[in-house]
Structure formats: structure tokens, C-alpha cells
Amino acid sequence: MTPRSVDGDARVAEASDWYARMRGAEAADDRAGFEAWYADPENARAYREIEQVWNTAGRSSLRNKPPGRQTSARWKPLAAAAAIALLLLGVSLLSAGSPVLPEQAPANILALASANDERRAWGLADGSSVLLDGGGALAVEYSGAERRIRLDRGRARFVVAHDARRPFVVLAAGTRVVARGTVFDVEAGNTGAEVTLLEGVVDVSAANASKPATLNPGERIVAKDGSAGIRPALADTARWTEGLVVTQRLPLAQLVAEANRSPGARIELADPALGALRVSGTMRLGDPRLADKLAATLDLAVVREPGGIVRLQARSF
């Protein structure tokens, strides 16, 4: 795949977003904005590329679609955008002789990892895809009976090819997720795991649970400290692959930790007490001016240091 320029990546992201929105419940309301955007020939070209990618993927998924519950109208466009993002990013195929194969690992096991400031995507041998967020690590082990992924740390999105003979299983922080041709996120933390379903069906078995819990699209389950509960997915949670985060009184420390998983300058807080400040709004985590925007919102000062570190600190009066 030919590397794209930064502008090209932004244009493809916009095209992916428009493609999903024009297939959503509010397409009519967005029509005028879409037509104005599409009038640019470069935008139109990017949109047609997205159509071609999705039409190819759509024909494949229809052939392999398992019976079960339908994706809700709210989550269908987000699931479409999720799959498109993986199809565009998945340029490293996991096959025999791949450079990511650990030297001493058996041939059926692959260990994958991403640096703290990058997201990496791979296409798997069965047609599934995985997008690994910054600082993540996982192991892939396929056998004739099961397709198993062990998420050791971080967050990942899976677009799963249906195979009734071999279940697709993700293990993370004592939690077991069994998918059936679907799109979902898993995050492995120090004390548990979180699973968010975008499309299809997944069964989640938390540690010490008496039976699996089945998620509907638009739901998430948080398994922590031996307990688990199903909750509605957070607003726009499906868009983390685009580097977007929607916050409602989110602690600054948590937002900074999330931003530092994305490519770009590293943000640090001069005083840990600043981490308790609350932030609301929609932000692009890879925005090179994110620190400046946070400083303006919270009345902080910005200090840029060697090595790409941006420090937020209280203003001196």
C-alpha cells in the first residue's frame, strides 16, 4: 500500500466519516453538508475509494453473516467506519515467514505489539483484522479448533470473519470473549477488562462468573475485581480509532493518559494535583495543539521541552 500524506490521511478519515453518516438515521439532515464537501474533486475521489473498499468488504461479510440479532441503527454507521479504518490500515499480513513472528515461538503463535505513540493494524490469516492501540501487546494462536487472541495489555478493535467451526476467542485480564462474525473492542487493564460491542454478538465470561453474558450492539461490559456489569456504551466510544474522544467532566489526568497513547508530542503535568481538573468537550487526541487548547480551557501555562515533551503547569501571576 502506498503511504499517504498527512493531508491524505485526514481526507480518508473524513471520507470514512461521511460514508458512515450518509448511511445513518440522520443522513437527510447531513445531505447538504455532504454535497458541499463532495464538490471538492479530491474529496470525491477519497469517497469513491471508501465505497470501493466497503463494497468489497460488504459482499464478503454478507456471505459469512451468521444468524442472530441485527445491529442497531445507531451503531451500524459506526461499525462501518470501524471496519473501513481497519481495512485501510491493515497492511501487515500475518502469514508464515512474517517479520513479526518471534524467532523462538512455534509457527502457530504470533506476538504483536505497538509502541506507545502508534496504532498498528494487521490482517489475520482467516480474514479477520485487529487494530492495536498505542502501548498494546497481544498474541495470536490459531489451531484447527479455535482462533485464540490473548490481549496482554492495551486496547484493540477486532473485525472478525465468521467461521462456525472455529470460534474466535479473546482472553484479557481474566475475561473470555467469544465472537461470532462481529466488530468489538477489548481493553485489558491492571484490575480487569472492558468489552464494547459495535456489531454482531459476543459472549463474555468474567472471572468467577457463573455463566457468560451476551452483549447487544451499543453495550459494554466492565469486568473488574471479580464482578461484571453490562452498561450502555459511552457516547462516540466507537471513534477512538479516529483519535477522537468525547469527554464529560473527565479528569485531566485520564485525558492526558489517553492522549499520550496517540502519535505526537507527549503531554505531562507539572503538578499531579492538576490531574483532578475536569474537562468536557470533543477532542482529537492526535491534534498537535491539544495541549494549547487544554491550557486555554483550564487557564494553564504550556512549557515545551526538548524531546517533544509538552508540560502543562499552573500560571505564574
How is the biggest beta sheet arranged?
14 strands, mixed
The residue fraction in helices comes out at: 25-40%
Strand content: 25-35%
User: What's the domain count?
Assistant: 3
CATH topology of the largest domain: Jelly Rolls
List its traits.
single chain; about 325 residues; alpha+beta; Jelly Rolls; Phage tail protein beta-alpha-beta fold; 3 domains; 14-stranded mixed β-sheet; 3-stranded mixed β-sheet; 6 helices; about 25% helix; about 35% strand; globular; disordered N terminus
Explained architecture:
The protein has helices at 6-21, 27-38, 41-63, 76-89, 252-259, 290-298, and strands at 92-93, 109-113, 120-123, 129-132, 137-142, 147-159, 168-172, 175-179, 183-188, 192-199, 202-205, 213-215, 219-224, 227-232, 244-251, 266-269, 278-284, 300-305, 309-314. It has 317 residues and is an alpha+beta fold. The protein has 3 domains: 6-63, no CATH class; 89-234, Jelly Rolls (Sandwich), CATH 2.60.120; 243-314, 3-Layer(bab) Sandwich (Phage tail protein beta-alpha-beta fold), CATH 3.55.50.30. Strands 1, 2, 3, 4, 5, 6, 7, 8, 9, 10, 11, 12, 13 and 14 form a 14-stranded mixed beta sheet that branches. Helix 1 packs across helix 3 (41-63) and helix 1 runs antiparallel to helix 4. It is globular and about 65 Å long. Mean pLDDT is 74; it is low at 1-6, 56-71 and 87-107.
